[in-house]
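Chain A, query sequence.
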Amino acid sequence: MDILIFAGIGFAACLVGVPLILGLFRVLGLYTIVEERQCQVFVLFGKVIGTIDEPGLHFLFTKFGWRALIMRWMGKKYEVDMQLDQRYLRSLGVNSEEGAPMGIGVWYEMFISDPTAYLFKNSDPEGSLAANVANSAVRSLSNMPLDDMLVDRHSMSQAVRSEVSPKSHAWGYQLGSVYIRKVHFRDHGMIREIEAKVVNRLRQVTSAIKQDGANRVSVIASAAERKSSVEFARAAAMRPDIVGQALKEISADPDVAQSLFEALEADAILEGHSKITWLPKGSHELAAFLASNDQKQISPPSDS
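Chain A, predicted structure.
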């Protein structure tokens, strides 16, 4: 039972006492905690006495000696964020070699490489870096050929980065990747002219494609008509020969020829829709009478 009591008292003392002791040490400035991608700069009497950029728990007495005891009241601690940052500069005005007003969009990465220089060598390092990037982009990209400016963005990005990096490091900033993301025309009148030219060119190309298709169809149709005309002419020329050969073979047998011509004659009579009148045998007077009536019906009208 006594062991349990002592254990409970010890646990309560640790639960309450350890945070109090650590808080007291922190108030006295005996230790500090550095987060990930963070750097702490310590200044005493206007002079930088040290920096800590390694994450974890650090006891200041082992690093700064007796100065750690008065750092809390007579010094100052700066916490600098070392994470990678990004910026985008929109529509920087440049002129091409042909004199066209262009807009350049520059995207770049940056991170703090020297916390001391970042804090004390420039009052606005971010603004200075942005101005440096903008000036370098305008200076290095002006008077470029318009075709290169619209197509070759990799070399443009390298040109801007190579000019900015040495200057930015002096202010504690290290420039990362630089990329030209957008190149556009700034003159609205020029934009409308280019759109009109593109539309006209598309119409010309469309008309040329349609005309070429029509010409190809005409060539194909003409070739087909010519070939069909040749075949029809050949068939018409071969027909009399085929008919003559058939009649020659038929004429070799008189009976077959007579029967064929009689059948053809009967077929022609049937196709002609002639009027046939059947008369009794020996009715010569009736036949003459009917013939005279038919002759009167088909006689031409008189001139009177």
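Residues 2-81 form one domain. The longest strand covers residues 173-185.
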